[in-house]
Design brief:
Elements (H helix, E strand, L loop, with lengths): L1 E7 L2 E6 L9 E10 L2 H9 L20 E2 L3 E9 L11 E4 L2 E2 L19 E2 L12 E5 L3 E3 L5 H4 L2 H14 L6 E5 L3 H12 L3 E5 L3 H9 L5 E3 L6 H8 L5 E6 L4 H10 E9 L11 H6 L3 E4 L7 H9 L9 E6 L3 H11 L6 E5 L5
Parallel strand pairs: 11-12, 11-14, 12-13, 14-15, 15-16, 17-18
Antiparallel strand pairs: 1-2, 1-4, 3-5, 3-9, 3-18, 5-6, 6-10, 7-8
The chain binds nicotinamide-adenine-dinucleotide and zinc ion (ZN).
Nicotinamide-adenine-dinucleotide (NAD) binds next to helix 4 and helix 7.
């Protein structure tokens, strides 16, 4: 079968590799669509980051490069391994793409995303969504009912947004400020709108500002090159400041703005991954008793996220800005996202060519 394999930075090859074999407790999936994520771009430009370093294997998967890429994917079950009795062949599903020790419990309330050596399918082994087929453990498979398979490829990043929302403790009727309207900021905004918040977004790029408004996920979009975002956000929220703020830009100045914009005893959630240490103005934090929190990936979020889409509270369709074939992954996928990033939100890839 065809697969996109990561060898090293700037070296991703479309190759023919053996099909994965079904083992007891696992599920075989024909991949329908797989999104390209900013993390994939970082691996391509500056990696390996999540991918094991050359000559090393991941402690859980025991795999090293080349690895099959792709962690944002949907597909249809083609076969069930021994002992899997609660799913059916032909069912459409998404995968919560974790590589986590088999002894780690997924019981309610367990923070399995924080377990030792956590990594991701499609980055550190166990196959990937940028291939025609994949076999994954039953526990990571989530049925999606009648959600279209192309939109379902966005459930993984939407779950990142859902987890950030859960981490914030935000409730309906509150006001949120999101710094950065990239794919993660936009999908987080979609969750917050669906959960009944008023959403303010801060963004510099014209295309992304328009996307935030045209999709209806933001009530207000502020441009820091035109207005004082913190002052404006305080005005919108009745003078006190926003209840919650989310850093989704990896820009230190944005984090500073969020500390100014949040109300006393408000919550700031850092979603961004930082390639360098960020600074936090502790005086701002201490004088307002700001609660600064991290959020990583998702845990127990997929069911609620899928329900938001099934109930029509989130429409993922307008966030798909490109559909490509696996053979065009670099030319029409990675290069597009690297060079024309602001006009794209999510480019999705079809590993099996359309007839
Ligand atoms: N915590 C997690 O589990 C998790 C998961 C996925 C991604 N991430 C991280 O989330 C972050 C966002 O991801 P993304 O794919 O949306 O990134 P992105 O780079 O596409 O989006 C960032 C946006 O911030 C905007 N921006 C830049 N400077 C700004 C400024 N001064 N004011 C306002 N906006 C500004 C950019 O124009 C861009 O649209 C990244 O750091 C990514 O690594 C975290
Ligand atoms: Zn991703």
């Amino acid at each position: 079968m065809k697969a996109a394999r990561y060898y090293a930075a700037k070296d991703i090859r479309i190759e023919d590799i053996p099909e994965p074999t079904l083992v007891p407790g696992s599920v075989a999936i024909n991949v329908a669509w797989c999104g390209i994520c900013g993390t994939d771009l970082h691996e391509y430009l500056d990696g390996p980051i999540f991918v094991p370093a050359p000559g090393h294997v991941h402690p859980i998967s025991q795999e090293g490069s080349p690895i099959t890429l792709g962690h944002e994917f949907s597909g249809t079950i083609s076969a069930l391994g021994e002992g899997v009795t609660d799913l059916e062949v032909g069912q459409n599903v998404v995968v919560e793409p974790y590589i986590i020790g088999e002894d780690v419990s997924l019981a309610d309330g367990e923070p399995y995303q924080l377990s030792p050596d956590m990594n991701f399918i499609g980055l550190a082994g166990h196959g990937g969504g940028l291939s025609e087929k994949i076999v994954v453990q039953r526990r990571w498979v989530h049925p999606i009912g009648d959600i279209p398979l192309d939109q379902a490829a966005l459930i993984e990043p939407l779950s990142v947004g859902h987890h950030a929302y859960v981490r914030s403790g935000a409730t309906a009727g509150q006001t949120a400020l999101i710094g950065g309207a990239g794919p993660i900021g936009l999908l987080l905004a979609a969750v917050l709108k669906a959960e009944g918040l008023t959403v303010i977004m801060s963004e510099l790029s014209t295309a992304r500002k328009e996307k935030a408004l045209s999709t209806g996920v933001a009530d207000y979009v502020l441009d820091p090159s035109e207005v004082d975002v913190a002052a404006e956000a305080r005005t919108i929220s009745g003078g006190r400041g926003v209840d919650v703020a989310f850093e989704c830009s990896s820009v230190n100045a944005v984090l500073d703005t969020l500390l100014d914009a949040v109300k006393p005893a408000g919550v700031v959630v850092n979603v961004s991954i930082w390639g360098h240490p960020a600074t936090v103005d502790m005086q701002k934090l201490v004088l307002k008793e700001i609660d600064l929190r991290g959020t990583i990936a998702y845990a127990h979020d997929h069911a609620a996220t899928i329900k938001l889409v099934q109930d029509g509270k989130v429409n993922l369709e307008p966030f798909i800005t490109g559909r490509i074939e696996l053979d065009d992954l670099i030319s029409q996928g990675f290069d597009q996202l690297i060079n024309h990033n602001e006009t794209q939100v999510k480019i999705i890839v079809r590993p099996v060519p359309a007839n």
